């Protein structure tokens, strides 16, 4: 008996696959070409089929908390494009479990790009998968995903436009979890304002009824997404049961499940067909600003701490001169004790441990110029904190050759040290002009330190302000991680208006994303 065209097609696909599990439906993994990328690239790329440049290509970004069924949804898209029906009794998959990979590259590859080129399909599909988002491994892992997307958008053969950002949510949810709010905030914080109309909701584990509670949960969390002509959120329903073993007693239920997902996928692809792509140019600007903000504020906190310690040291010296005025007037030597500030380099994985194992530090300024977040570039000149060969972060804006990248960072410390009046005079010998006392010189130094501290704090404030103007998610939790520090310091330097604006950002973001903020703070305390 001759095979039908459909049977031939299925057999051809099976020949291009490896068996995962022999049952009904039989599970197969399609054989993909794994691209041999530079190990420094923080993403991996896998391809099925050959690209036809004459055909349109749609690119989607999949985002979802672990356990929402995102992986099954990716495979559902593939089976839909392949034209697989329930009666074919097969199920094809392209995804794999990264955690089981042993190679160095796969361990550091956070983002996976699946290129799916099908000869009989009118459109090719590129799926960007972000596994691991919101897992308990912490905020640092999620920052790596941001870095991966940034690298992907900048590479010559990478992704330069996106047609849809798919937020995967369980239809049964009554509210978004703290971790889920953090996940969506972390992703939406990466994009410019122009991407909002390309964000679509994909509800999994659905029974076919409108997910009113889940939709309300998304609205309550103020998640921006596409809306239809009636100003309602655009969403599609799926039941993640297509790959499960068929059972006769549940045949009708399973058939209903299959049809629901098929209908949802049909609607999604129609939506995708009509979507105009958004370039990632603004996204690159947002990512760059976020990285610079984080590096700047981290560095500024250290520099402000050093200046405050130096101020304290000078004040103790002033007090000692006042208490020993008779010795000063008599030009006699005396001894006093002061808390002296100094810098020390410590391993990253000690008290200040992060998943980021390295930092770029300036050996001249003794500062951490890119920490946390500097983990994948091999050459210091490639670091995102460098511009025209010079650092944009450290005090003296030193050349990259004056920097080192290693698993150590500078920390500001103090130690009690005994000093003498003679030592102090020698230290200031040549710094004091005619008619200027040592006490007066110390006061001038304190004023200069305060002026420098204000300048540093204003730099950080303007970074936050710029980010507020260009980012889709203006009140990002990544910004909020630094905001308490900035509010406190703005009040100290008598900048009430700036402190008030930062407090408004914090309040607004706290109201919009209370759960996400709690999640981040809890991770930081671990």
TrEMBL record:
<keyword id="KW-0547">Nucleotide-binding</keyword>
<dbReference type="InterPro" id="IPR025662">
    <property type="entry name" value="Sigma_54_int_dom_ATP-bd_1"/>
</dbReference>
<keyword id="KW-0175">Coiled coil</keyword>
<dbReference type="InterPro" id="IPR006703">
    <property type="entry name" value="G_AIG1"/>
</dbReference>
<dbReference type="GO" id="GO:0005525">
    <property type="term" value="F:GTP binding"/>
</dbReference>
<dbReference type="InterPro" id="IPR027417">
    <property type="entry name" value="P-loop_NTPase"/>
</dbReference>
<comment type="similarity">
    <text>Belongs to the TRAFAC class TrmE-Era-EngA-EngB-Septin-like GTPase superfamily. AIG1/Toc34/Toc159-like paraseptin GTPase family. IAN subfamily.</text>
</comment>
<protein>
    <recommendedName>
        <fullName>AIG1-type G domain-containing protein</fullName>
    </recommendedName>
</protein>
<feature type="domain" description="AIG1-type G">
    <location>
        <begin position="58"/>
        <end position="244"/>
    </location>
</feature>
<feature type="coiled-coil region">
    <location>
        <begin position="283"/>
        <end position="327"/>
    </location>
</feature>
<dbReference type="Pfam" id="PF04548">
    <property type="entry name" value="AIG1"/>
</dbReference>
<feature type="coiled-coil region">
    <location>
        <begin position="432"/>
        <end position="459"/>
    </location>
</feature>
């Amino acid at each position: 008996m001759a095979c039908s065209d459909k049977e031939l097609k299925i057999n051809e696909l099976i020949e291009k696959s490896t068996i995962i599990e022999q049952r009904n439906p039989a599970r197969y993994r399609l054989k993909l070409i794994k691209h041999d990328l530079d190990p420094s690239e923080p993403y991996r790329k896998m391809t099925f089929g050959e690209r036809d440049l004459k055909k349109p290509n749609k690119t989607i970004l999949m985002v979802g908390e672990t356990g929402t069924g995102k992986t099954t949804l990716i495979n559902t898209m593939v089976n839909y494009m392949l034209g697989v029906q329930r009666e074919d009794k097969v199920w094809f998959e392209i995804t794999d479990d990264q955690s089981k990979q042993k190679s160095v590259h796969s361990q550091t590859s956070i983002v996976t790009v699946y290129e799916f080129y099908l000869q009989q399909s009118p459109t090719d599909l590129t799926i960007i998968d972000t596994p691991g988002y919101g897992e308990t491994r912490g905020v640092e892992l999620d920052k790596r995903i941001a870095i991966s997307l940034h690298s992907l958008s900048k590479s010559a053969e990478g992704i330069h436009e996106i047609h849809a950002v798919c937020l995967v949510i369980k239809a049964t949810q009554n509210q978004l979890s703290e971790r889920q709010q953090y996940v969506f905030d972390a992703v939406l914080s990466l994009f410019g304002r122009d991407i909002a109309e390309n964000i679509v909701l994909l509800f999994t584990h659905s029974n076919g009824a409108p997910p009113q509670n889940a939709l309300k949960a998304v609205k309550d969390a103020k998640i921006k997404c596409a809306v239809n002509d009636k100003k309602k959120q655009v969403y599609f329903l799926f039941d993640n049961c297509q790959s499960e073993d068929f059972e006769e007693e549940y045949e009708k239920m399973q058939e209903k499940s299959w049809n629901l997902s098929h209908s949802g996928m049909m609607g999604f692809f129609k939506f995708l067909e009509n979507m105009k792509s958004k370039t990632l140019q603004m996204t690159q600007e947002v990512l760059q600003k976020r990285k610079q903000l984080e590096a700047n504020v981290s560095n500024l906190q250290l520099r402000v701490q050093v200046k405050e310690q130096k101020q304290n040291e000078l004040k103790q010296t002033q007090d000692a001169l006042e208490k020993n005025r008779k010795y000063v007037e008599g030009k006699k030597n005396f001894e006093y004790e002061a808390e002296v500030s100094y810098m020390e380099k410590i391993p990253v994985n000690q008290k200040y441990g992060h998943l980021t194992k390295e930092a770029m530090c300036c050996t001249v300024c003794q500062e951490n110029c890119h920490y946390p977040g500097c983990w994948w570039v091999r050459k210091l000149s490639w670091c995102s904190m460098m511009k025209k060969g010079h650092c944009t972060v450290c005090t003296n804006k030193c050349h990259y050759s004056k920097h080192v990248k290693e698993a150590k960072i500078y920390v500001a410390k103090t130690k009690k040290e005994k000093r003498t009046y003679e030592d102090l005079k020698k230290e200031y010998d040549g710094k004091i002009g005619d008619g200027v006392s040592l006490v007066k010189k110390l006061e001038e130094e304190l004023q200069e330190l305060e002026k420098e501290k204000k300048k540093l704090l204003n730099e950080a404030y303007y970074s936050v302000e710029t980010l507020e103007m260009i980012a889709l998610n203006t009140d990002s939790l990544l910004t909020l991680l630094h905001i308490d520090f900035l509010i406190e310091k703005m009040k100290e330097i008598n900048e009430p208006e700036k402190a008030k604006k930062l407090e408004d950002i914090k309040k607004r973001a706290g109201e919009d994303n209370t759960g996400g903020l709690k999640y981040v703070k809890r991770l930081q305390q671990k």
